[in-house]
């Protein structure tokens, strides 16, 4: 049975790395003593080693030992064998390219399907959707495909940002960008504000945290979903 | 001899479409009576016809007749024969995909090299760089390549946006995104603020408008360039 936490962001403004998720993660990873961290998204260009150290330091709180996926000779096998998996944020294009290059994408999809507890933040959440086509990231490398894990039957926009009142900037708002996505694609897109996450248990998908999320569907007006909403039927 | 105007945006806040560029465009397109408009970037999903009408309406001011590239049977031939070319803004992924699909990319590169006056705004400016890898747009379609025209020997970030003071948002700033680009790529990136444009005459590249632009080079601190700066040596 699928078991995922899919978070908009790893860190809230003024907070420390992952701390706002502590109670949820304690429950999510209960019984796990090891975790494979996927550091491929490399925020700010950080190395795989340094990024893994950051995650490992946090997970000592839960008495979980972390190893980076880059440390294994066979990335696919490492994910198949993993007790738990966490994919950190950063650049989704870099992440997806590396997941394909190492053969990890298919193995991760399979591990999630067979119930390996998974945590994704930001880019690590983006890849849980059908495609990475609603990422906010710059296309700094060219991935072999935009198709991602499809662990949920719709797309995500993490770090969802409302239009800034009084802004003089003429670049597209997030809402406009997602509207453009729907000129070419049919899947719903959930805009997850920082502080929200999805909890997936089997086919049940629940919006967690204290914030509303914004749902975009092709040909329909966007709608606000309350915290606690059941998104299990969304596709 | 190359002759381009490469603008950050088509429209300034509170202004009308292209109006701030009127004097520059009068000079740029002097002697032209027809222009081919490339509507492929489809901002907000607008149709090729409607987008072309918008451009055509504006160009009546300069007594220039506009035809959309989608109206020609042979897009490559249309660009080879064009007296002048304008590529409008919108989504760079959609634009680049369609330029490759129609065979227009190579023809446009050639037309620019041989001196056809060119205007680009936003996505239409992005494609003047070496690659589209510093676009702000969402990857809503999958292009066959990120390589673009290389009409200038560096990359652009149109609608360049400074960090917003006091923002509580944890998504990456534009500067962080460009820094991440430089973790994987060497070309310089010029952040063009709304109101700035580049004027290219042969090998001469001048920063026009009243604003500074922000220059990012791999392994160096970003620097502010004054309006009027000569960027001819930048590569």
Task: State the helix count of chain A.
Answer: 7
Give a short account of the largest sheet of chain A: 7 strands, mixed
What is the structural class of chain A? alpha/beta
The average pLDDT of chain A is 96
CATH topology of chain A: Rossmann fold
Oligomer: homodimer
Taking all Cα atoms into account, the compactness measure Rg of chain A is: 17 Å
> Which stretches of chain A are low in confidence, meaning pLDDT under 50 for 5 or more residues running?
none
Brief descriptors of the model:
homodimer; 4-stranded mixed β-sheet; alpha/beta; 235 residues; 7 helices; 11 strands; 7-stranded mixed β-sheet; 25% helix; Rossmann fold
């Amino acid at each position: 049975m699928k078991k995922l936490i899919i978070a908009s962001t790893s860190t809230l403004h003024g907070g420390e790395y992952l701390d706002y998720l502590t109670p949820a993660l304690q429950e999510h990873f209960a019984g796990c003593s090891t975790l494979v961290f996927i550091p491929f998204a490399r925020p700010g260009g950080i190395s795989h080693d340094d990024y893994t150290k950051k995650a490992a330091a946090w997970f000592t709180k839960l008495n979980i030992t972390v190893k980076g996926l880059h440390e294994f000779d066979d990335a696919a096998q490492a994910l198949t064998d993993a007790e738990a998996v966490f994919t950190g944020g950063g650049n989704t294009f870099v992440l997806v390219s590396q997941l394909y290059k190492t053969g990890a994408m298919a193995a991760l999809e399979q591990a999630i399907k067979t119930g390996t507890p998974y945590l994704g933040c930001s880019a690590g959440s983006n890849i849980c959707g059908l495609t990475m086509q609603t990422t906010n990231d710059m296309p700094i490398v060219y991935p072999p495909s935009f198709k991602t894990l499809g662990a949920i039957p719709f797309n995500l926009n993490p770090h969802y940002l409302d239009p800034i009142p009084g802004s003089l900037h003429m670049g597209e708002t997030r809402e406009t960008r997602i509207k453009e996505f729907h000129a070419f694609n049919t899947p719903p897109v959930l805009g997850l504000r920082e502080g929200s996450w999805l909890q997936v248990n089997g086919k049940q998908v629940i919006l967690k945290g204290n914030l509303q999320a914004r749902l975009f569907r092709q040909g329909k007006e966007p709608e606000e979903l309350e915290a606690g909403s059941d998104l299990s039927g969304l596709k």
